[in-house]
Specification:
This protein is of the alpha+beta class. It has seven helices and 15 strands. The chain folds into two domains: 188 residues, 2-Layer Sandwich (Fructose-1,6-Bisphosphatase, Chain A, domain 1); 135 residues, D-Maltodextrin-Binding Protein, domain 2. The chain binds 2,5-anhydro-1,6-di-O-phosphono-D-glucitol and manganese (II) ion (2 copies).
């Protein structure tokens, strides 16, 4: 192996040295999350041989059927993180309430939020899935930890990332100094830096949206997609391509690598819900990664990172990716007089 290989550990130590961008506890936290992702990656790889496929026969607080791997990944992340002394509490898409670090362990100053297994519908069909995580500092003005402490806007994040379990296992990370990508070297058991300072092209000819919901969309989203579909004969004057993996991690990863726009907008099926995706576990970490790579992320009306969460499992409309496209569709919302995402 070349001596030039930079492992995740070395990357983090260098981030810590460079003007103290990250604290020792945060470095530990990120390493622990990465180790948990390695464990999840091995479980995903075993598939049917490991008995990890299929439904767990339960539902989460959002009424979604839980897969075995949703619960396995959730357990792996909790067990890895609860004893190290770096965390105050965790929150997960798969748990009704926050998980406070048990009294027998020291409490740290960070809060960890995660979608343990993103793209659950793809588990059993061997398509890319992933883990998404987001880290905040616990407010310092009080002892103990409450659900309220988690309700911070995404711009307060101190680290965010995802791990995609695809043909390769790749970890994308930001601590506020651009986006770095690490590929899992299975022989060495380490994440190795394979790309730093990822940039999303500002323009694109590729969009990702679940087209089967078209008839339920609001007018600005319909207008944007209609114009893409008209291709070079329409107002955009160019042909577009469509991709939809149904795993946000895989769609966002593609956008980080070659540009594109990803949308999960509000729709009329459940008008009371702002969208399908969760603000704390999916939208915030992905929005920060995308912004750190030079892209944009809004809910149609507002920067996602400025949305003030009102509750733990809050949902939000998501439009993210190549800057000029996200600004265009956000502009269509503004023109239509839509002021709430
Ligand atoms: P999860 O598996 O964590 O519930 O998330 C699934 C999300 C996201 O990953 C994906 O983009 C979207 O749901 C897919 O939705 P459709 O089923 O509407 O395609
Ligand atoms: Mn998800
Ligand atoms: Mn999930």
């Amino acid at each position: 192996m070349s001596s030039h290989h930079i492992t995740l550990t070395r990357y983090l130590i260098e981030q810590q040295r460079a003007g103290g961008r990250i604290h020792g506890q945060l470095r530990l936290l990120i390493e622990v999350v990465a180790r948990a992702c390695k464990t999840i990656s091995h479980a995903v790889n075993k598939g049917a041989l490991g008995g990890v496929l299929g439904s767990a026969g339960s539902q989460n607080v959002q009424g979604e059927v839980q897969k075995k791997l949703d619960l396995i990944a959730n357990e792996v992340l909790i067990e890895a993180n609860e004893w190290g002394g770096h965390l105050a509490a965790m929150a997960s898409e798969e748990m009704d309430t926050i998980y406070t670090v048990p009294n027998r362990y020291p409490q740290g100053e960070y809060l960890l939020m995660f979608d343990p297994l993103d793209g659950s519908s793809n588990i059993d069909v061997n398509v890319s899935i992933g883990t998404i995580f987001s880290v905040f500092k616990k407010p310092e003005d009080h002892a103990g930890v409450t659900e309220q402490d988690f309700l911070q806007p995404g711009r307060n994040q101190v680290a965010a990332g995802y791990c995609v379990y695809g043909p390769q296992t790749t970890l994308a990370l930001t601590v506020g100094d651009g986006v770095a990508l690490f590929t899992l070297d299975r022989e060495q058991g380490t994440f190795v830096l394979t790309q730093d300072q990822v940039r999303i092209p500002e323009d694109t000819r590729e969009f990702a949206i679940n087209m089967s919901n078209q008839r339920h969309w609001a007018p600005p989203v319909r207008r944007y997609i209609d114009e893409c579909l008209q291709g070079r004969d329409g107002p955009r004057g160019k042909d577009f391509n469509m991709r939809w993996v149904a795993s946000m991690v895989a769609d966002v990863h593609r956008i980080l690598m070659r540009g594109g726009i990803f949308m999960y907008p509000w729709d009329q099926r459940e008008p009371g819900k702002p969208g399908k995706l969760r603000l704390l576990y999916e939208a915030n970490p992905m929005a920060w990664l995308v912004e750190q790579a030079g892209g944009s992320a809004t809910n149609g009306c507002q920067r996602i990172l400025d949305v003030q969460p009102q509750k733990l499992h809050e949902r939000v409309a998501v439009m993210l990716g190549s800057k000029n496209e996200v600004e265009r569709v956000t502009g269509y919302h503004r023109e239509a007089g839509q002021t709430q995402g």
